[in-house]
Amino acid sequence: MGEFARALFDPDVPFVMYAFLTGILASVAFGIVGTYVVARRISYIAGAIAHSVLGGIGVALYAEKVHGIWWATPMLGAVVSAVAAAMVVGLVSLYSSEREDTVIGAIWATGMAVGLLFIARTPGYIEPMSYLFGNILLITRRDLWIVLGLDAVVVVLGVVFYHKFLAVSFDEEFARLRGIHVHFYHLLLLCLTALTIVLLVRVVGIVMVIALLTLPAAVAGQFSRRLWQMMLLSVVFCLFFTTMGLAVSYTHNLESGPTIIVLAAAVYLVVTVALRLKKSLASGGSRATSMHTEDSSVS
Amino acid sequence: MSGARAVELEGVWFSYDGAPVLESADLSVETGELICIIGPNGGGKTTLLKLILGLLKPDKGTVRVFGKGAVSARRRIGYSPQYVHHDPQFPVTVMDVVLMGRLERRRAGPYSREDRRAASEALDEVGIGGLSGRLFNSLSGGQRQRLLVARALAARPDMLLLDEPTANVDVVAEERFYELIERLNERMTIIMVSHDLGLVSRIVDRVVCVSRCLKVHPTSQIDAELIRDMYGSDFCMVRHDHALGQGER
Asked: Does this complex have an ipTM over 0.90?
């Protein structure tokens, strides 16, 4: 760990510091949005959005290299494709009679396919693996500012519309009866999810970003009585997973993305099992308790 | 004609994907009335409530609520659904849920002190004021249903629509619940779906039977024949008003 601490402040390897700061900053958005994603059970939509990002990156790289469009950066491509995918899934689920899961699967695979085709046609060697599985060497100083800006958007919207997001997530029908534009909040949430996913694609990659969105919230959910508590705890867990994961991966010369994800998954597993054991020990197999839980799950 | 009618359905037809649920339903509910909707499962009781709330649009016919279209009047209605389909791990407390009744379209940020007071009053009113800090998922079925009624009341509505509010409640609690309904009826119109005629018939003004068609009965006419008629055989809505009374029959 001492090695990692030294590398953090080593001017020769600025990407370590960038990755570290990206992880910290992005954890804020991940904790908040991840909580909504988990509570609303839309992680499969988040998965499709994440994978569509490769399409945007591929198109942007191609446009940049082949047509010399300087502003077509992979980051912009990722943001555009993520938001577009979010809107398509959202609008389909709201207005179309198409099966939602079919559309999600189509976007998932098509995004990857388009990305790989464009990357293959882009001159120069581009390693798709670094987008799929994350590569902290790609993080630049400018990315940090983008993460900071998106953080601000997510925090402000997440706090200002907290009660509306809560009501829409808990009981959409009732929220609509109170005059809330539930479709608007549904789409807004998907867009925030899209932006958040883009934040950490550099660090953990397209394939694994979904785990970092849901696992901290899933762990936090086990200890939370309120949605906002779950958000705060998710932020803390996400911070822990990204910084510890980076430190471990740097120290042992491992890939950063997979290290972070495995750490998060391990904590989730341990916490879930431990709480379950604790519960069954506390109840001591008492019939009354088991009957009570049965009753409340039925009703 | 009178704008004071709480609900006015005229010739309402409704079907789900071609399967008819309601046929030519007429219903008018005066302001201040307490009516009960009964009928077999799948007979269209919840559909009827959702039409009044504007959550469903009729295939044919009109729905007027407080003289306006169903959607524009819905904020004057407090609705308590039969269930909430939610994630059993969703972290919300009783207070969080009841405060949802205070949501406003144009307001963002935290709830006001007034919102919290209205929410607490509503919880006290249904008799679960002591549970405000409890997790929603730790409530029993009956407590949950009372909470959903409290959430509807928190909006301080002019009319309550309750879908099977006593489905998970034991008989003693049910009697107490109907006392609450009677008390609430002094200040608002109430339309309630129930399957238990025995207790309801003592307090309601009229009973509406829904089984694809609508039939309205004064409570004095509820007898075995009626129930057989309703659950047993045909799909038709018969209408017996208080005003027609027994003399006419």
From this structure: no
